[in-house]
Amino acid sequence: METPPPPPEALPVVRPVDLGTARLLPDVDRPAAWLLTVDDAPQSYVDLRDPGHLEFEYLRRLGHVVDAAAPAGAPLRVLHLGGGALTLPRYVAATRPGSAQRAVEGAARLAALLAERLPPPPDSGIALTVADARAAVEAAPPGDVDLLVADVFGGSRVPAQVTTLGYAAAAARALRPGGLYAANLADAAPFAFLRSQLATLGAHFDELCVLAEPAVLRGRRFGNVVVVASDAPLPLDALARRAAADPFPARLVAEGELTRLVGDARPVDEASAAPSPTPPAGAFRVG
Questions:
Q1: For the whole prediction, is pTM greater than 0.90?
Q2: What are the residues whose beta carbons fall under 8 Å from the beta carbon of 171, sequence distance 6 or more?
Q3: pLDDT score of 204
């Protein structure tokens, strides 16, 4: 891979974007690292010199999914819904050279800012496009990708259009047999939104698991939950080991425990779809 371009001058950038005011803030402790916020809510963190560094806890869990998706170093075809600062695509490019990746960002002005200030290396295999997340999934050729990652937020909430049976069917269709779907969601006990999403994905995927901080699973706070789904057995042991050994440990919920979590939740149809709950002030932390 070619040497990446020099990082932008380490001065804060403030610019109006689609959903508010974006700020790109340099990290004084890590040269070439940047924090992206929109209306002061953390959105992305990227280290341009060390793309293997994943700062946010939920992104570390998505990184565990990438690590367990195929043998080490094997390239993947990946569709990312939600571009942000392209943190996870850069991680895939660094750990799995030769991967072909498309990142879809729905916020055009935010995508333009990031393409200008934090572009990926030209030979990274990462293509950033501006499009609606659901439309991009529905337009994907059947069996086109090995891994589909959904990190779609309108502000601080998951939009209703990516919570339904129709969306889940399109996601399952876009994956090759045995491919993995991974989504970053946010909820708190009693997990009405999470449970409905598990029921919805369960209508189209045979296997499901959840990765989350124990405090979130115990109902002590609102937080991110990573859901993983496939039509084939999941790499549960590998995911559990990686999550438990992380500096910010997570717990894996699967099989019978997951069935109990879903309980009597029903799949979400188009008529009943709603965004994820509004997080309380200060709910999202930078881990």
A1: yes
A2: 137, 148, 150, 181, 204
A3: 98
